Amino acid sequence: MQYEEETTTASRPGRTILWIVISAAIVAALVFVKIKYFPSPTADAKGGGGGRGAAGSGGKGGPGGKPGGQKLPVQVYLVKPTNLSDEVAATGSVLADESVVIKSELSGKITSLAIKEGQPVRKGQLLFSINADEAQAAINKQQYNIRLFRDQEKRQRTLLDKEYISAQEYEQANNQLQTSQADLRALQASLDKAYVRAPFDGVLGLTTATVGTYVSPGTEITTLSRVRPVKIDFAVPGRFASMVRVGDVVSITDEGTNKKYDAKVYAIDPQIDPVSRTQPVRARFANTSNELRPGAFVKVNLQLGESTDALQVPTEAVIPEASGYSVYTVKGGKMVPKKVKIGIRSDKVIQITDGLAVGDSVIRTGILQVKPGDAVQVIQ
Q: Where's the CusB-like beta-barrel domain (predicted)?
């Protein structure tokens, strides 16, 4: 027991030295890694690191905050007078000149059907008829009553002339005759509803009705449309409303065939749409060869005049903002923003109605990088 205790006591100093050596090695390794891979920023700034020191020694680095005073290269457009056709582009819809849904006004079975789908019909032509036996029987009965009441009225008139009856008794007989005649006219009008005729010249649509089909009042049978001429419905922005006139010729392009036709404005809505702020306009096209079909979409171009001194800039140079539009111009080698008002626009250019003058240089590239007051270099 005495021997083991002495051995343990002797080994303790050796273990302590070993742990000290290991700890010193770990600390030395950490210091090496720190110096090697994570140098102090202060040391970099004080040292001879020429790259960062040279760039930072100049403060902001010249005008516009560009390193070394560099100028942002931009391309510009020189504003000049150009020819411009005041043309408004819009989309329109083709409507039939007249269109109606043919419905039944009575209940009953269809007894005859003269509807030829997709074929033209003339005004007054019979389209279909509904079983009207009951209405015809009621008319026949009323006609017999009228003959009876007419004979009674004649007898009463004779008696009145001889003063055998009072005027009141005659008036009762006469009133009975007049009432029966009115009832007959009402029955005749009801019978006429059983024979449905075309209200105007046009072309019939499709139908699902056949002879024997039972219909009720309001049942849709077919459609009738007059497609020569057709109407073109479109709208122009409210700012052009005062420039549109009845009689103006508009160019329409069929989106299906890409063919162009000329239509003439014949009606202008007296009110501007309060939601879209547009002016509804309607034109008419002869459509003599059925070039356009109702329901189709067309592109509409309305010529409002021509200007020889319009100012236009590339579309990409105009910047939309919450309060309007602006462009960036070059003045004294620096960028200067300007508020502008726009007019007619196309895919490539936009008319500027206010804010620019002839000779202004408008920046068209690098718009996202440049800021007001930045120095810029105009390149070709």
A: 232-303
